Amino acid sequence: MSVTSSGSATYSDALEGSNAKRGLWSSRFAFILAATGSAVGLGNIWKFPYVTGENGGGAFVLVYLLCIAVVGIPIMMAEVMIGRRGGRSPVNSIRLITERDRLKPAWKLVGAIGVLAGFLILSFYSVIGGWAISYVGTTASGQLAGQSAEAVGAIFSGLLSNPSTLLLWHTVFMALVMVVVARGVRSGLERAVSILMPALFVLLLLVVGYAMTTGHFGQAAAFLFQPDFSKLTTSGVLVALGHAFFTLSLGMAVMMAYGSYLPKKISIAKTSITVSVIDTGVALLAGLAIFPIVFANGLEPGAGPGLIFQTLPLAFGQMPMGTLFGTLFFVLLIFAAWTSGISLLEPIVEWLEEQKGMNRTISTIAAGGVCWALGIASVLSLNLWADVAPLGFIPMLEGKTIFDLLDFFTANILLPLGGLLVALFAGWVMSRQAMENELSLSPTMFNLWFITVRFVTPVAVAIVFIYNLM
Ligand code: PFF
């Protein structure tokens, strides 16, 4: 592969050569680790249980699983493929492909949505990451040992009511993300993820093991896996779809950014499926860890964003060596959130570097700084601005704080919209020949994928959107 940097190089030279300049993942395994690092995060352990609780359990989980299979995996393949083909930051990969194949420049919007969603998500993601950091201290100091559900609840509301503590941990989390991004993807990411992800998995299993002893495991499993469609609302379907995007890190070009570092030989389909299966497995395990504790302690499954911070501490307070395991668990949760946070910042920084010619450190400081500042609004909406609902006049958004709105707008609108554009781009715009080359699937499998991104995904996303608008 030749490396071209002269301005007169052809686009296909650029397509061929750009990967070589930027350093590639060292192996398929490394890519899987990094993509899993992005996918597995607060979305699996914090968000999945709470949205499942809020939306009534089984039927919601079923729709969510369907969304992963029918919408998530095909779009992940499309994103990785576009990224590898373009070999640049998402914005420029799309631009390169559109210019080379003489397509309409409007497709650059895909990259733009990604950059916008990245800013917005990271701003509140970092605040929740901060909660996890704060809980390391709470757990390690032994404060949770033998506490009642009320006492554990009070510790949590104490944290939320304190803007300066929240701001401190939000700042620490954002700084952690920025340090790794500033150092570059290869040296920072791969090493961290390869150790931390398996460790998180093991600890989660441990909590599931404890949850089995509560005597409410069966009830929890029924709650998660016995669909009761009377509990499913149309907005629940939207949340399930949005969460499928959020949890797989789709719709904001993260997988595109990572795909741009993927060597040509590696199978995009196999890697995408592996990442999705691991991600879903972690979410289901988190559900199996948390709901038995919810039922055993008479807690409310629909308790909202605080759910895991009210249930897991209870478990750690009661299990043998809970202080040790609890501390470890929250440390690992921070790592899971950290690797996801890194992937939220990466596309923005890549774009600033290429587009604005800034160096990596300056781009990281600029982008991270903006996210940090935005995060202050989320910090305040947990306390001083808890009653401020800026869009409360819209029935669907009644009572939603700035924090709730950011979460809702990014996961349920921006990401599915980004995903829809990716599906349309792959399904209707990109050259079929190029896609066949990138994916190298059997003709049947290629057609199956192609029909999905061309018809099934766009129609599914459109129907869910239209229903919810009505
Ligand atoms: N997938 C991450 C999680 O489940 O926590 C969150 C996330 C990361 C969403 C990166 C979107 C993204 F681009």
Automatic annotation (TrEMBL):
Keywords: Membrane, Symport, Transmembrane, Transmembrane helix, Transport. One of its GO terms (cellular component) is membrane. One of its GO terms (molecular function) is symporter activity. The chain crosses the membrane at residues 29-46, 58-78, 109-133, 166-185, 192-212, 232-261, 273-295, 324-345, 365-386, 406-428, 448-467. Belongs to the sodium:neurotransmitter symporter (SNF) (TC 2.A.22) family. This is Transporter. It is found in: Membrane. It is a multi-pass membrane protein. InterPro entries: Na/ntran_symport, SNS_sf, YocR/YhdH-like.
